[in-house]
């Protein structure tokens, strides 16, 4: 179980590091990505970007 915590932690660190790069490429601004303020905080739900990145990862996995 500790391995999963480590994997999730490393994935979150990687995502937070790569996020500004992806925003410069236009991901995070797609029509299915939601940004809203609630209780004084800005929330971001990247539904469309997640689907696009998943399709790219799937295509790369099939090529390998």
Number of domains: 1
Strand content: 15-25%
Structural class: alpha+beta
The tally of strands reads 2
- Report the sheet with the most strands, covering strand number, pairing sense and barrel closure: 2 strands, antiparallel
Mean pLDDT: 86
Shape: globular
Main sheet: strand order: 1-2
- Approximate helicity band: 55-70%
Provide a count of the helices: 2
Q: Please mark out the parts with pLDDT under 50 across 5 or more consecutive residues, or reply none.
A: none
- Computed over alpha carbons, the radius of gyration is 14 Å
Distance between the termini: 29 Å
The succession of helices and strands, N to C, reads: HEEH
Keywords: Membrane, Transmembrane, Transmembrane helix
Organism: Ramlibacter humi
Protein name: DUF2905 domain-containing protein
Transmembrane segments: 44-63
């Amino acid at each position: 179980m500790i391995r999963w915590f480590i994997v999730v932690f490393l994935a979150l660190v990687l995502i937070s590091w790569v996020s500004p790069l992806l925003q410069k490429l236009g991901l995070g601004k797609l029509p299915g990505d939601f940004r809203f303020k609630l209780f004084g905080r800005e929330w971001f739900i990247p539904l469309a970007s997640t689907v696009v990145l998943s399709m790219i990862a799937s295509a790369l996995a099939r090529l390998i």
